Predict the structure.
Amino acid sequence: MVHVPTRGSLPARLGPQIDNVPDYGPTTMSRNPYTDPVQYELEREHVLAKHWILAGRSEQVVAPGDWISFEGHGETIVITRQPDGSLAAFHNVCQHRGPAIVTDLSGCGARRFTCPYHGWVYDTTGKLVGVPEREDFSDEHLKDVRAKQVAAGEWGGWVWINLLGPDDAPSLIESIGPEISSDLGAYKMEDMILYEVVEWDVPVSYKAIVDGFNEIYHVAQLHHSPPEFVKACRKASFHFVGDNYMCFVPRPENMDKWDESYDHHKNAICHYTVFPNTVFNCNPEHIQVFNPIPLGVDHTRFLCWQLIYPGDMNDPEYNAYFTKMQKHWDGLKVVVGEDIAIYDQLARTKKSSGYTEQILSERECKIHRYHETMALKIRGKG
C-alpha cells in the first residue's frame, strides 16, 4: 500500500480560519541582489558557507566507501559513507598543490582516494595517508595533514553539508526547524526513492530561481493554469518560520473539503523553502525538490529531483499510483521548462539600465522576506 501523507495532529496550515497572507504589505526592492558580484561574494562567505546545503540522496551513498561529490559556489566537496554508517565530508582539494583529489562525481566502495597529479593518497575521511618520495618532505609539514573537513548530516533521506565543519556547524534539524521538520516529515521522504533528476544550466542568479517558487502570481500568465486553479491560489496560505517558508495551495478538486479541519497534506500542494536554496514541492503522489546551485553571480546549475514511493508494479493499486505520478511528473517538467524560458528572458534584461527595481504585491511577500533575510545574514545580524 502506498503511503498517504496526512495532517493528523499537526497544526492547521490552510482553511477558512487561517490568515493566509502575513501582514507584510506590498513593497519594492532593488534588482541588485541578482546582479551585484560584490554581494554574491558576501553571500558565499556569510550564507552559503554557513548554512546547510542539500548535496544529494542518502540512497546514493549506501555502503561503506560509497561517495558523491558536490560542486557549487566555488567549492568542490566529497561526501563518503563510513564503516560505522556515518557520513564524512571534506574539501576535494589536494593539500600538496591544489588539484581535485577525486575526479569522478560519484562512486562505490572506495578505500582510498589518490590525487591524479602527484599521487598523494587520502582515506575516505580526507586524511593524508600516503606521499610518494616522502623522504624529500619535512615530517613537520606532513604531520596531521588532511583535506579540510566539512559537516555532513542526513534528514528526510537527504544528504546535507555545512562548510563550517563538524565542530562549528549548527544542528541540521534545528536549522530546518520544528515546523518544517514535522510538517514536511509527514511525507516520509526517507522511505521514498529517486525516480529522476533533471538538470538545467541557467544564466541567472540562483535567487531568481528561488523567487520563482516563492510566489504563485505567475501561474495564470506563464503556465496558462485553468481558472479554477487560479481561483484556488487566492486561498493559498503563506507562512514565515524562522529563516524558512511554507506555502499551501488548495487543489481545486478538493475545495468541497474547505473547512476548519482541512488536511493540507491530502488536499493541497505544499511548498517548503529551506534557506538559502532548497525548495520542496509536495503532492500526495510524489515530491519534487528544486535545488538551484550557484556557480557565479548570474550562473546557476538547477537540479530538479523527483521522488516517488516504492512498490510492486504487479500490484494494481501501485500500478495506478505510478501511472498517475508519471503523468503528473511529465506535466510538471513542461511547467518547469516554462520557468526556464522566463529565466532566459531575465538573462536578456538583467543588466538593463531600464530595470532598477521590482514592484511586489503583498502576495509576493516571501520574495521580499527572502532577500531581507539574505541581507541580514550578510551584515551578520541574522
Observations:
- The radius of gyration is 22 Å.
